[in-house]
Amino acid sequence: MSVGDSHLHHYVPRWYQKRFLPAGQKVLCYLDLKPDTVVKGSFTYRRKALSFWEPARCFCNRDLYSLRFGNETTDVLERRLFGIVDKRGAAAVEFFRNYDDFKDGTHESYQDLLAYLGAQRFRTPQGLDWLAKHMRLDDKNATLGTC
To answer: Positive or negative CA dihedral for 114, 78, 18, 91?
Structure first.
């Protein structure tokens, strides 16, 4: 893996999550529908379902979009596909935030917004599982290659 590669991949971008925070608030109320059970020696407990986390910790999985080639991995899909789609999607959302009439950039922003919304369907863990199932793929790299 390259030095600059990331491992924590957000399927709901942080910029989008932050739009739901009231002014001055920095944490989201995060409900885990399937909290982990932790075993430490003879002590077992279930994590709390309700947490208060910053967007950096919400809606992400480790190496969700990492491609593996033998012992090497890369986050090129995160950087060069979802990163670009997210950046353009954020700009498009901001463009339409106070939209009042057709103006320069409307068509481009509309296209970027559609690309962002389209990517959201398949970038979640459930979306990737759905894609693998319906394309009859059992390899993560093959599934990610269809994105």
So the answer is: negative
The structural domain count of the chain equals: 1
Q: Is residue 1 part of a domain?
A: no
Q: Does any domain span residue 141?
A: yes
Backbone angles phi and psi of 78, in degrees to 5: -65, -45
Burial class (CB in 10 A: 0-12, 13-18, 19+), 95: middle
Residue type, 113: L
Residue 89 in any domain: the answer is: yes
Q: Which residues constitute the domain of residue 84?
A: 8-145
Q: Per-residue pLDDT tens for 66-121?
A: 888 888 888 888 888 888 999 999 999 999 998 888 788 899 999 999 999 998 88
For 46, 102, 108, the CA distances from 40, given in Å and listed in that order, are 11, 60, 53
Task: Establish if 2 belongs to a structural domain.
Answer: no
